[in-house]
Amino acid sequence: MSKLSTKIRQKQSIIPKQILQSSYLELSLDDIEKELENEIQKNPVLVEKNIEDSKAKDYEGYGFDRQENYDLFLSNLPEDKNVIDKLINQVDQSEIDTISKKIAKEIILNVDNSGFLDSELDLIADSTESSIEEVERALNFVKKLNPEGVGCKTLQEYLIMQLSDQEDLALDIIRNHFEQFLNQEFLVIKSSLSCSDTDFDNALKIISAKKFAPIIDLYEPSNHVNPDVILRMKDDKWIILINDRNLSRFKISNEYLNAAMNKDTPKEEKKFIDEHVNSAQSLLDTILFRSHTLRNVVSEIIDIQHDYLSEKQQHPNPLKLEDIAKNINMDISSISRTIKNKYIDTPLGTLSLKSFFTSKITKKSGKVVGVEELKTAIKDIIELEDKNKPLSDLEIVKLLDTQDFSIARRTVAKYRESMNILNTKKRKLK
């Protein structure tokens, strides 16, 4: 066999495993358990470990190639796996430039179960090394993909998008009376509009016919969060426990392995065993790869967020996906997949891994803090305001200045809205 044909065969055998590893990085613990259960049902070579097997478990010597091309993973994911992969496939097939494609994929990987954007634009800009303007352009592109509207920040924005080329009255209701619409204060809305009862009823019918989320049931909802990682302090050291007890309790049957190596085993039977052993081994290696990668990522997060986790400071430190990617020599997209849909049980409670990533704000004194500190400061100021005379965003800017923050009015407005805090007029007591 020639060297070229050997390389081709190697590539054909490697890529499926790489694809599997990449796709499993973003799966939650519950999702992986389902995948494992499915494999167990159809693969007879997978059996439960006994006590001695469990005692002998040792993952420390397991080696991983950290130089693997994770962009290749993304580009080779099965198209029909889920909505996210279909969206990424649309980006790959589009004619936008390479940078815009990278940003668009990062946006798609940061939407919640309903398709709404679950990340700040500046954080996406940091992780993709791009400008806010470039992120905004990519976001507008993503919103036009199928399903339309993925990447919208709020329900109001999504409804406005759907109504933009339709009846003006329906658009007016959502654009200018959204809070009252949500509260079903229809009489209040109608009294402020110059329209007939018939026109108003028709407008409500138009709105009710629209979708209220870009994606419906992207993932199976769960009332109980099953943490992927458990973090505890012991002897002044953080102990990281990967919640993989149910994932690591299976092994490949020795009986089948012996049969595969036995010269007397019929050819067809041996072929059957080899295929199922390879399938099982690939799955077990992939689960181990996921656990190993998750441990590495969490370890880096802990190093950076030690004081926050130890309750020595109120807010997490600024942290970008890029920071973790550089430290463990992985692609940013892989880090994004690793933290997606993952939760960690900490002394502070059960937190999403995403919550540890926040943009930085530089105070007037030069101190760099996370954006969560600024958001808390804004929230605290508003909570203490005179409800009969709420503060304007400009007045909040002036008060923040006394707390060492030097920011623009539009920045206050952006973070106020991200916390679902109404504007001055709507906060005023009636």
Account of the 3D structure:
There is one protein chain. The protein has 430 residues and is an alpha+beta fold. The protein folds into four domains: 1-68 and 224-357, no CATH class; 83-152, Orthogonal Bundle (Arc Repressor Mutant, subunit A); 155-208, no CATH class; 360-427, Orthogonal Bundle (Arc Repressor Mutant, subunit A), CATH 1.10.10. The chain has 22 helices and eight strands. It has helices at 3-25, 29-42, 51-55, 70-75, 83-93, 98-108, 121-128, 132-143, 155-163, 168-176, 178-182, 186-192, 197-208, 254-261, 267-304, 306-309, 321-328, 332-339, 371-383, 393-401, 409-418, 424-427; strands at 46-48, 229-234, 237-242, 250-252, 343-346, 349-352, 360-362, 368-370. It has a four-stranded mixed β-sheet with strand order 3-2-5-6, covered by helices on one side. Strands 1-4 form a two-stranded antiparallel ribbon. A hairpin with a 2-residue loop joins strand 2 and strand 3 (237-242). The longest helix has 38 residues, at 267-304. The protein is globular, with a radius of gyration of 26 Å.
List the helices and strands and how they pair.
Layout: H1 3-25, H2 29-42, E1 46-48, H3 51-55, H4 70-75, H5 83-93, H6 98-108, H7 121-128, H8 132-143, H9 155-163, H10 168-176, H11 178-182, H12 186-192, H13 197-208, E2 229-234, E3 237-242, E4 250-252, H14 254-261, H15 267-304, H16 306-309, H17 321-328, H18 332-339, E5 343-346, E6 349-352, E7 360-362, E8 368-370, H19 371-383, H20 393-401, H21 409-418, H22 424-427
Parallel strand pairs: 2-5
Antiparallel strand pairs: 1-4, 2-3, 5-6, 7-8
Helix pairs in contact: 1-15, 5-6, 6-7, 6-8, 7-8, 9-10, 10-13, 14-15, 17-18, 20-21
